[in-house]
Write a structure and sequence with these properties.
With 92 residues, this protein is mainly α. The chain has one domain: lambda repressor-like DNA-binding domains (434 Repressor (Amino-terminal Domain)). The chain has helices at 9-13, 17-40, 44-51, 55-62, 71-80. The chain is elongated and about 50 Å long.
Length: 92
């Protein structure tokens, strides 16, 4: 049995670097949106209204259910909060 090591958990659970990068980007956006919600002290209902999504969908976001959100959906949520997303490319 050969032992494998990975740079991140996303590398371990995906088949390609592209899939890993997509999951990492979604996870980071979700984390930052959840941090903003917490910093504002909003209830899930209040946050959902600010994000232009339903409360159950917001619950999925704060619970970290990455598979339920595309990058596009997360960008729309960020925009609803009046935020602009900047993308930085780093060498893999």
């Amino acid at each position: 049995m050969t032992e494998q090591t990975f740079t991140s958990v996303f590398d371990a659970i995906t088949d390609t670097p592209a899939q890993s990068a997509n999951l990492q980007a979604r996870a980071e956006l979700m984390r930052q949106i959840a941090t903003i919600i917490q910093a504002n002290g909003w209830t899930q209902t209040e946050a959902a209204n600010h994000c232009s999504i339903t409360q159950p969908r917001l619950n999925d976001l704060v619970k970290g259910k990455i598979s339920k959100f595309s990058l596009d959906a997360l960008l729309n949520i960020a925009a609803s909060l009046g935020l602009r997303v900047h993308i930085t490319l780093d060498a893999a």
